Amino acid sequence: MLRYVTTNPGKVREAERYLPDGSVERLDFDYTEVQADDLGPIAAQGAREAYRHADAPVLVDDAGLFVEGLDGFPGPYSSYVEETLGIERVHEVASELDDRRAAFRCTLGYCDGEGFAASPDPVDQGDRDAAAAAGPDAAGEGGSDGEGGAAGAGAEPLPVKLFEGYVPGRIVAPRGDGGFGYDPIFEHDGETFAEMDTDRKNAVSHRGRALEKFAEWYADR
Questions:
Q1: In angstroms, rounded to a whole number, what is the distance separating the alpha carbons of residues 92 and 103?
Q2: Where are the residues of the annotated region Disordered (predicted)?
Q3: What is the CATH number of the domain that holds 28?
């Protein structure tokens, strides 16, 4: 059974669209969210912590809104910016830019305690290099590194496989009553995410695109 680490049941329902029936369930686990300018190290570190907690295959996601004219901001800090500034303020700042292009990005991190064969697809990023980008491996409970060795510097990180999803768009004035987060100010193909119904949004969403790649790989796992 695959554990999808999230407090949002909607994410699990979205994952169920791509994975076999009964193969995924929600795991509510508050992993450490490291500070990084890229989604990969955050998802990788979360997946390693969650695997040690669950002792079972886990899937962790991290996502954000990347505004071109703001050098990718708010990016990995999207949740914090939404909570502190609000999406209206993000729109106000973006409206003063010449370049209002943006993208929603999602990175899925998968860990099952085993290694991975190299992948020729650069989007399905490797294993130890990406995981190690978060820094030294966190110690497990009881002072162990979770792999039978001593905790601390030099502990080899658990392999993590990363899958990315990306959807381009631009920042607009808020429109629509659906969705959540930045959906009302993110327009893709003439509609904001908040104007799309669930099926339409899932069909083009960054998380859906990452899940599709993951599901194709996971089928042979």
A1: 17
A2: 119-153
A3: 3.90.950.10
